[in-house]
Structures are given as structure tokens and as C-alpha cells.
Structures
1.
Amino acid sequence: MKVEKARQYVVDSLKYALNPSSIAVVGASRYETKVGNKVVYELLKWGYKGKIYPVNPRANSVLGIKAFHTLKDIKEPVDLVFVAVPAHLVTEIVKEAVEIKAKVITIATSAFKEIGRGDLQNNITQYCRDHKLPLIGPNLVGMGSPYDNFNCGFIPYLPVKGPIAMISQSGANLLAALGTSQESHFGMSFFVGLGNKADVDFSEFIEYAGKDPHTKCLAIYIEGLDSPEAFVDSAKKVDKPIVVIKVGGSKIGVKAAFAHTASENPNADDYYDKIIKESGAIRATTWQEFLDVSLALGYQPPLKGDHIVMITNGGGAGLLSCDHFERSNLPLHELEEISPLLKQRIRAYMPMFGSPLNPVDISGTAGVIQYKGAFKQAFRDPNVDGVLGAICPTAVTDVPGVADAAIEVYNEYKDLGKPFIMICQGGQECSEAIQKLRDNGIPAYKTAEQAVNAMVALYKYGKKHFKK
Amino acid sequence: MGKEYKLGTSEQQEYLRSYNYVPKGYCFLEPGAVASDSNDYAAYNIAKSFYQVYPEVFNISYISKVTGLKEDDIKARIKKMYENREFMLVYNPCVSVSGFGLYYWVVKLKKDTTKEEREELTKWFQDNDQICTGYMMSEGGDFDYYNGNHMRNIDNLVGGVLDKFRFRRCVEYVHICPIRRLVRESHVNQFDSLKDYRRYFFNENAIDKLCKLQKKMDKDDFKIIDAINNTKTIKDMFDYDFLAKLSGLDANDLRENLSRIVDKEKQMFPMVYFNYRALGLKMHFYLVSFFENTPTFRSEEIVDELANEDVFNNIFDFGDSHHNIMLSCYEDINDLDKVKSKLLSYGEVSEVLESTSPRQFRRWTCRLDDDNGYWEECVFTDDVLVDRSVNDTREDK
């Protein structure tokens, strides 16, 4: 349901959704094969420190924890009510949640508006609004935060800690992002599935994320915007980069988005393009770009200007990059143009057949010493705004050593506020290097185009940021 | 003798007029069958989820009118019966139209079966979610277990369930008893009874004796169960306004949808199950076999005659099996000699095997083992799209 603008009582209550001191899990099953059981199991498994109250009218105990037959039987304060029961039971549970003065209710249940039960969803939502009980969902997978060991929902793992708040209407894509986080060390501050977003809106999570100390970038997956004005208003208030992927623009996608999260898309995709531009957010087209760009904006400062220096041991990676920079309307400048002195200094780190243009090709024979020297020179040069490094593993390339060198240089010079991005295009050793680099705050990617997209996003955000 | 259903006469089976074969089998899926999570089931699903806390889901004023008990007393008794695990709201689906075959099977253990072997097998049956209903028999009877599965595929029953235990040293035999007609189950006439669909039977004399034997339940409790189960239409079983209040759905839709699938289409019906184990009762089973040259119509006539007896709380009629009927009634409160004499009075009966059950494992997927902390945990398994006949040695380990 529409909101005119983010409601303060909702924004203030979201801390109870993402860091509650007590949770009632309604529909907590005794059977480990059932989803209601998994919610309690995952809370325990990931070390949630608050109180858990399983609610099940048939059970006296779930996973060794005392169970309650109804919410009203819990005599202690409840911050969050997580609902995992069929849709026809939810109305009464919402009333009980109001009665026990819960702070937030999250409804994971499906089969509301998306299957034609719009009235039921709206009635429940209105009841929650009348009683100022923020409702997240329905039809969602869950939420959590690695900083609080909080994994609440049907979610098999927590992401690694990091700066990105992942706000997604789709549960499946949220899980995909969490999987990526585990596998490729895409660090998150918190994550939440919004599902049908009957009550709590994107705008309210945007304002919450704006104040969350762990969040440096907001990554938002949208299937439909019920309240575009509120979205724009909140996004403008937040002084953190926002990356948006908006789907459901294709002919069939419009129908699929409704069937999935009851998202209505009455306008053409251009309309959403304008809304996103007006909000100041960066729009990604593909899922991969969405993740890549969010990673860069989460970990790195904005790019002040277009003086980017690329240092690589492989000409191919350099060529892929400079072509893609140009396609992205951010062509690389020659090193001579950026800094004639740097061009001279950097020669010391390459063989005679190396190239001091831009990309700077320090050649396939480059070792840790050459990389470290070239990186240092580039960072130290006052005319350089950002550095893009690339490792192409030849038989003589010490990939872990170069990654360590990159981390060492970055730590030494990160206070200069210059973005640093790495490309590691190769096999297992490169995957491991990417994880290590990301763990140390350096966005690293498998392909040149991913890294260029990331740098371009830092430039776009820089234009907005430094204008202020 | 009544109809003979003789080929070529007006009595022959109706389907033989359209087809050259008999649609013989157990697993039918008929047009119009709906799933248990559909809107049509909503009223039952709401009641099933809330009756533990709100007895008001039942039509209390109707029960009061029928029993003469005060409404508050009825609500208190319903709560008491639930909390003491004496009754449970359940439903029976008509498997004959919803695409499942209903396959019961009898297990006989060898005489030298050890206590440990028996206990281990009992636990295996209790914990196996594919087994939707099951009875454990006391040692010393003619057979030791009587369990059942709803399955779409006989190979899945054999490969996925029976093969997993029947080659144990202690197992003498497993006889599959596919249900041809589900006549009565848990005191209530089922979809394949000749008459009195949904009628609840509990012999009055037996109730009198039972109330003298124990103090947990009295006659008024049984009157309430009778009143709930014996409504003429399902529209009288629940308080649909209360269900609407709980769910936010429309009362009229809830009532009419459920009535359509219960009263008109006979796809399912809700009922209250009486848990005999909670009162320490034992159920005596009779496994009846007819001579092999007994015509089917005659065996069905016998089943229909026995169904007139309110002493029986279960009547299962089998096809393609060593046996023909399984019937049961409670020990201690019925005259078992008289029951057996009645069975043996039929010249078609070749054998009656007997065993006594002190414990039911599940009641149509709802677990009854409160002692294990799983009271009313329901797991509906479905073998559609699954081939469980593949030999998976990992499971054997």
C-alpha cells in the first residue's frame, strides 16, 4: 500500500526487525523438514543472542526451547514477530501481535495479493497501520545481519560482514546475493526481503540504512514501486550511494512481477529510469553489474575526476578495459596527459618492452616488486584520481604475492581517498586473490568489464557527491 | 440375494457400457479434485489451526442444542479433551478421486523376534512419514502391525517403504492390502460406505461401559464428539463467522466452498478423531479372508451387512490381496466372542486372524505420539514425480 513519504515511526522501529532482543516465531514446527522449524534452527545456528519464543498451538517445545501456544501466552516483551503460517491464519496473529505490543511483524507467508487476495492483504495492512505496527512482507524469505549474528528466515547462511545493505523484493535473488557473499566475499551490513511490501516500503528501509553505521552503500532490487515519490524523497535524504536494479519491464516481465510479488508496473520502463535518476541512485541493468557496482560503492570512496591509471601485466586486460571505459563514456587518458612525471617514474618498474601509456603494461614478467612500485607511484601522484590494477597469471606471476602487495599499498595510501580496484582474471589462484582483496576492502573482479563498470559507478557517484 | 451385476444384464457395471475394460485399480484422479491448500479447504484449515486454542471454531450453539449442555461447559470440555490428547480435529480425503491409491499392509513377525528387534521396528514405523496411518499390535497376536500409505504408484510403496524393512531377519511376511472400499474409519462412515456417508458410530452400550472403566471422559464428552461428527451437513460443524473473524476471509465463501467439496462432491470431510490410547483402550482387529471363489459382489454385500453393526469402528475392504476385510472394535467394552461368531456365521469366510492394538502411530498423517513430543505434527507425503523403487544403497546404510 502506498505511503506518501517514509513514516518516522516505521523507520525508528526497523532496528527491532534487524537487531531485535526477542523474537516470536509463529509457526515454529517440531519437524526439521518444515520451514517454521528452520527459522528457529538458523537463529540458533548462527548465534542469535536474544530470546526466542517458538509459537505453535500443538507443541510444548521446539528444538529444545519452550514453545507457546499463542502469542498472548508469552508474558515477556516481544520485539519482532516472525510469521510462517498459511495466509488464512495471519489475520488473527496480527491482532495478537498488536495486543502484546510487538514492535515489528514480519510475514513470510505467501498467497496474498499475488494470487488475488488483495483485500485480505490490504485489510491486514490497514490494521497494522491503524495500530502503528510496522509490517514487513508478506511473501518474503527473511532478513538478518552478520554484525549481530542474526539470520531470521528460511535462509541457509549469513553473508560475510561488509558495507552493503541488500534490500530485495525477491527472496530468490536475495539468497543468490547471500550465496555470492559467502563464495566471493561480497560483504553486507544487513539484508532484507520485502516481498509484497504491503506496509513497510523501500523508502523506510532506505532511511534506516542511511543511519545504519555499518552501511556504506545501499543495493536495492525492485520489482515494483508503489510509492515512487517516497522513494525519491528518501533516496535524496541519504548521503550514501544507492544502486538499483529494476526488473519487470519486459512485456511478459510485467505479468511475472505481479505473480511473484504482486508488483504493479503500469508505466513504461522509461518512467522508472526517470524516477531512479531523480533519486540520485545508480541504475544497474544486469544482476552481475548490480553486485559489482554495489561492491565498489560500498568499499571505495567516490572518484573525484577521470584521471584513472591502469596498471597491468597483461596487454589484453588493458585493451578490454580501455575499450569498455570508452563505451561507458569515461575514456582513459594517456599517462602523458595525466602526469608526464608519473610516466617517467613508472618506467623503472617495467622492462624495455613494457608500455608506459595508459593502460600501463608492466609486462608478463612483472613480479611483486614491480607491481608494488608501480602502484605506489600511481597512488602518490597528485594528478591521479583512481587506480585500476590487473593481474594476469603468467608462469612467473606470484598472484598471492601481488595481491598482498596491492593490499599493503592500499592500506598505506587509502587515506588519500583514491579508489582502487583490481582485476584478477584467471583460475583458482585468482579466485582466492579476489577473496583476499575483498576481505581487505579492495573490490576485485574476474573480468575487465566488471572492474570498469565499478570504476564508472564510482565516477558517477563522485559527480553527485562532490557537487554537494 | 440382491443385485448380481451380471455381465450383459441391466445390472452390469455402468462403466462397461462405455469401455471394453474395467477401470480396475486404486489410484484415480477425477476432474474437479482440489488440493488441500485450495480456497475450498480454507474453513477446515482455519479450524484445524485454531481449535487447539479457540473451541469456538466449532458450532457451539448447535452442539449445545443437540446435547443440552451449556456453551461454556462445551468449550471447556473441548479444551480439556484436546489438552488430554483425547481428541483431534482431522480430515479424511477421498483418495479414490484425488489421485492416490490407499495401500494398507499387514506385518507378521517371526516367533523368535527379540524385544529389541520389535522396538526398533516399531520406532521405524512411528517415525516414517510416508506411513500415514498405522497400528501396533500387542505381542502374541496373529499379526503384529497394520499400517497404510497413500501412494500414486505401487512400486513406490514396495521400493520406498516395504523393501526398506521386509527383508529383516525378524519379518515373517508382509501382505499388501490395497483398499478397494474405505467403509468406516475412526467410527465414521467413509466415502465408500453404501449408506450413511459421514455418519459417526459409537455403540451406546460400549460408551456406558467405557465411562465406568475410566474417569477421564464422561458421557457428555462423547455426546460432544457425536454432535460434532454427526451434523447432517458440514455447514453445521463449524462457526463460520468465527472462522471469518480469525482469518479475515468471507464467512459465506468459507461455508459454501467447504460444503461443496464435502456435502456435494464428497472430496473430503473433517471429523473429530477419538484417541483410544489416551483412555488406555485396546482395539481388537479381525483380518478376514473369504474363499477365493467368492464373487466380488457377494463379498461387498457381506461388507455392507457388517457395516450395519455399530460395534465396528473401522471397516476396510481390500482387493487383490490375501485378505478381504479388516474390522476392529474395542476390547473390554464389547463382546468379542459375539463379534467373532458374527463373522464366522458367513459361509464365505475361510479365515479370521486376530490381534489387539494398544497404540496407533498416526491418524492420516497426524502423529499421535505425544510421548515423543510430536502430537498432531502432520506431514503429508506425496510420491508424484518420484521413483522410490530405485535401489539406493545409501539409505540401506
2.
Amino acid sequence: MNARMELCFPLGSEMMTTVRLTTGGMCALAGLDLDTSEDCKVCVTESLLLLLHRGFREARVVFSEENGLRVAVKGEGERKEAQESAEDDISLALLGALAGEVAEEKREGVLVALSFRFESK
Amino acid sequence: MTESELFREYRETRDKALRNRIAEKYLYIAAVIAKKFVGRGVEYDDLYQVASLALVRGIDRFDERKGLQFSTFITPTITGEIKNYFRDRSRLVHLPRRVSELRALARRTAEEMLSESGKKPTASELAARLHVSEEELLHAEEAGSVVSLDAPVEGAESEMSYYDAIPAAEDMYERFETKEAVLAAVGELSETEREMVRLRFGQELSQAETAKRMGVSQMYISRMERKILEKLRKSLKEGSLE
């Protein structure tokens, strides 16, 4: 079974527990170990933070089981005022350090989506 | 001074004061990354310390001529160190990383060789495939065998456990003498240094908490601690030679 799940939600701190729990569940389903699962949660949280700093107030996260887990995180809806942070570079570097195959999608120079994959060992 | 100028000067001079300035400037990166790993069973202070050490080591290795920003270079370094720390902590008995890696690799390779030829490889065949000596391979295999301290010592005539067989590290008289020597050495420190020793080693506070109580930076405490330990070491060494 190649499981797939989509979450669409308002980008707010109150949603983070739900997102992290869902991420953990999908990681378990994809056969990732606990450490990798924790890394995946960090990557999802950092991606959402990056989108929030670019003015998105809604996000969609798509999990697909592909020899591990592929996660796509997209900003949705209208963008409000962006507040890019000095820590964004660290977030991007952290994604690169934790996940394999990180891809960024930009529209008019603005980051609008990120995807990454974690392989099951 | 730009980031690139700062690192160029450090690369050319290796001036420790400059390295400390750079470390203080970028310590926030260690703090930011350490926070991301909170909640995995390790205190923030410990994570921050691991991250800070990685930062200082990273400063020595960073080459600004390669065109990378320091934050881009150091983030994977710090992340790697934190992950190594988690991995090392997860073992009851801490094995050196090389030994752990060789054990894991040997297990995987042995399975591969079994599926290739249909028979289990010998130690020498496995060592040859892994490009290590047979002795090194056997040492790595052996390192994983955890023995309970309550288990009986093999070959002992009575029912002696490994715990019984371990000699005491010191006797009470030695302990008393050591305490006296340490107290005398601490007495030679300045008032501020004694206060730091009291907080760090008496109350067992973290460097961050000690820094907060004394109204200084954690980096300052870290430097002071190194200096004090060096002083005490010297003082105790001289005392033991008298």
C-alpha cells in the first residue's frame, strides 16, 4: 500500500501539535525509525515557519509513501505581509542537513513550496 | 568588518581572541539549532553545549574563500554533532563511533555476502570485503557484547561477580588527602573564581545558569572554567611533587 495523506490548515501555532502528530503517524506507516521520524517533524515545522515568514496564512502538507516518505509543504491562499527572518537561512540549511533531496519552489522570487524525502532504512 | 574579512583575518592570524569574538557573534546559531532538538529527551543546556562546541570547531575549519555563508556551513556541522550526541546517548554502553559504525557495516555486509553465496562469510572473508584487519573486525564485534556486573566471573572458584572483582578506585585515606589538596588549591583562586567553582561544581549548575547568576555570558564562564581547571591541575601537580 502506498499511503498518501493531505492536510490543509490555517498556519498557526495551535495547529502544530496536530501536524507533528500526523507527521509522526505517517513516518511510522512508511517504516521510518524514531530518530528519522523526529527529523521529519523538524523539517515539516521548519518548512511551515518559512512559509509563514513569507506571508502565507494557510498551508497544505502532502505525505506520500515512496520507499520512505516524501513530504510536500505548500503555502496556500493569499499572502499577507511577509516578515522574513534572519533565522530563515538556518532553517533552510537545517532542512538540507536533515533531509535528502530538498526541493524549493519559488514564484516571482518568493518561496512558495518545499518538498523533501526521508528514506526508510 | 564583514563576515568574510573577519574569517580571513582569523585564517591568517589564528588569533584566539578573534576566534572568541567570532564565536560570540555566531553563538545565536548554536542556540537556534539546539532549540529545534528540544523534546527528544535531552536538556536544552546540554544541546546548547554540544552545539556551541561544534560551532567553535567549525570556526577553525571554515574557509571563507569557498564562497559559502558561515551560517550555511555551520548548520549541518552543528546538526551532525547533535545527532551524533543523540546516537551516542542511546547506547547503554558508549562505544567509539568508528567501532559502532564498523559493527553495523559488518552486520549488513555479512547479510549481503550470505545472500550472494548462500553461506555465511568467515571473519577473514568479511574483513577483506570491508578493507579492515581481521583483528579490527573481531574487536568491533566483541565491543558489542554487554556483560552484566552481577554476572559471575568465569573461572572463579567462588561465586564472585564482576562487581566484586572490580578494585575500589581509591581508599578512604587517599580520598581524604585528595579533598585536602583540592581545598588548598581552590583557596588560591580569586573570589570570583571560587564563586564560579561553588556554583558549577558545588551546586552543579549548568554553565548557562552559572552565567545568569553571576551576570556574565556563558562563553565567559566556559573560558573561566578552562582557566580554573588549568590552574587547579597545575597546583595539584606541583603539590604532588613536593
